[in-house]
Specification:
The complex is a heterodimer. Chain A is built from 8 helices and no strands. Chain A has helices spanning about 5-15, 20-40, 45-60, 70-90, 110-125, 130-140, 145-155, 160-175. Chain A starts with a helix and ends in an 11-residue tail after the last helix. The relative contact order of chain A is 0.11. The radius of gyration of chain B is 25 Å and the shape is elongated. Chain B starts with 12 loop residues before the first helix and ends with a helix. Classes of the chains: A mainly alpha, B mainly alpha. The interface between A and B is large, with 63 and 48 residues.
Chain lengths: ~190, ~260
């Protein structure tokens, strides 16, 4: 969805058009869910929190002004604050490695075991990142944001985000035993 | 910006692939989950739109009533100008000051005087007093809303402090009468919705005041529901505004809660 279409939908939603808000939900809910799920672990909690993020957005929408803050950045800031509040009060959140995914459901027992082992390894490697590195990976690769957008949401310089991303990728490579490749563009 | 996961590029194909697999298996909402969330969110958006439309209509009606009252005042002033320059000057000064006081916003030094005037000139009939209290409560919520909209959290806190004092006076004046309490409860329910909306995203300076107003309104509606006679804190009789006009200023909001 291009920026102009999104702006029009936001304006319609601000005027009380709930279906316009539904289209905004369709556009962003996947990315918000992935970001929240990567922070809280449990899929049922991720669903509740994603819903809370959008309810907060409905309530704050009349006061949202596009000046200088893209809607997506504004929404992810709400998501980030919601996840932080949740983690503050639910310290026993599920470890990433304990979550069972849907993609394993359609496979045979052997491939399930292999896939599960691999997914657990990725979850373990993510768990070994620092909180800042993990948040950068979540926003960059799970939510699909640009380094600039991540910098705005986390309140950091874009260079800092690139540095955190670089170190996080190195750490993931080491943890997963992935040999360095020659591709130079790391976003 | 979203859903564009193909652009994941860590600089390493194998790492990209493993992250993709991880996202697909463990971080993506199922279609059922997406449907559930969408239904809940769209329903909530429709409810919020209905509440806002209702509120907008109510505020427009109030604004029309105020404009009508101001026009009446202007006509009165025009009548008096015919009675001589001296009378005109005196009337102008008097009414000019009154209009300034009656239109004072929470950040204005005249806001305390406005609140005092409103409470000093309440109608004597109990039912009319109850209706006036409801009007004043709505005006305080509106003041807080405008103050927040204008980036003035202290003004919002001042207005909500006055809201709490007005609520106590309204409960006291209702004197346990079921009809007056029912009308008050109906107004409080609408205020609660508005206050909860204001609380979301309000700056920290205004959060406590909004929270206090929500708590007091909830307690009052609960007391009315349970049929127990509400027990308001003693409300002091209206006293003259301070000469500096800061009676409704930022100090009032924090002070009132500390005394409770």
């Amino acid at each position: 969805m291009d920026g102009e279409t999104l702006d029009r939908l936001v304006a319609r939603a601000q005027e009380g058009d709930s279906e316009a808000f539904g289209l905004i939900f369709d556009e962003f809910h996947g990315a918000i869910f992935r970001f929240v799920a990567s922070r809280v672990g449990r899929p049922s909690d991720a669903e509740d929190l994603t819903q809370i993020v959008f309810v907060k957005a409905i309530e704050a929408l009349p006061r949202y002004e596009a000046r200088g803050v893209p809607f997506g950045g504004w929404l992810f800031r709400l998501a980030r604050n919601t996840a932080i509040d949740y983690l503050r009060t639910h310290r026993e959140h599920t470890d990433l490695a304990d979550v069972t995914g849907r993609a394993t459901e359609d496979r045979g027992p052997e491939s399930i075991t292999i896939l599960r082992t691999d997914l657990d390894a990725v979850a373990g490697a993510l768990g070994r990142l620092t909180p800042d590195q993990r948040e950068v990976i979540s926003l960059r690769f799970f939510a699909g944001l640009s380094p600039r957008e991540v910098a705005e949401i986390m309140g950091r310089q874009e260079g800092t985000i690139r540095g955190l991303q670089f170190r996080a990728i190195e750490s993931l490579r080491r943890s997963l035993g992935v040999k360095s490749a020659d591709k130079s563009d790391t976003g | 910006m979203t859903e564009d996961l193909d652009r994941i590029d860590t600089g390493d194909d194998e790492l990209d692939w493993r992250l993709h697999a991880y996202i697909a298996a463990r971080l993506s909402p199922s279609p059922e989950s997406s449907r559930r969330m969408r239904n809940a969110v769209v329903t909530r958006a429709a409810d919020a739109a209905a509440i806002r439309a209702f509120e907008a209509e109510r505020l427009a009606m109030q604004a029309a009533q105020r404009r009508q009252a101001t026009r009446g005042l202007s006509g009165f002033l025009r009548l008096h100008t015919r009675r001589g320059a001296a009378a005109f000057l005196a009337a102008s000064v008097f009414f000019g000051s009154s209009v300034a006081v009656l239109a004072a916003v929470p950040s204005s030094p005249f806001y305390g005087a406005r609140i005092w005037l409103e409470s000093a000139f309440m109608p004597s009939s109990p039912d009319a007093r109850a209706a006036a209290h409801v009007d004043h409560l709505e005006a305080r919520v509106e003041d807080a809303e405008h103050a927040l909209g204008g980036g003035d959290p202290n003004g919002a806190a001042t207005a909500l402090s006055a809201y709490i004092a007005e609520l106590e006076a309204a409960i006291k004046d209702a004197d346990g009468d079921p009809a007056r309490l029912a009308a008050l409860k109906s107004a409080l329910n609408a205020h609660l919705l508005l206050l909860e909306q204001l609380e979301q995203g309000a700056p920290a300076d205004a959060q406590n005041a909004i929270h206090d107003a929500i708590n007091d309104s909830r307690k009052a509606t609960k007391d009315i529901d349970t049929g127990g006679k509400p027990t308001p804190a003693p409300t002091p009789a209206p006293s003259a505004p301070e000469p500096t006009g800061s009676a409704g200023g930022g100090g009032q909001n924090s002070g009132s809660r500390q005394q409770r």
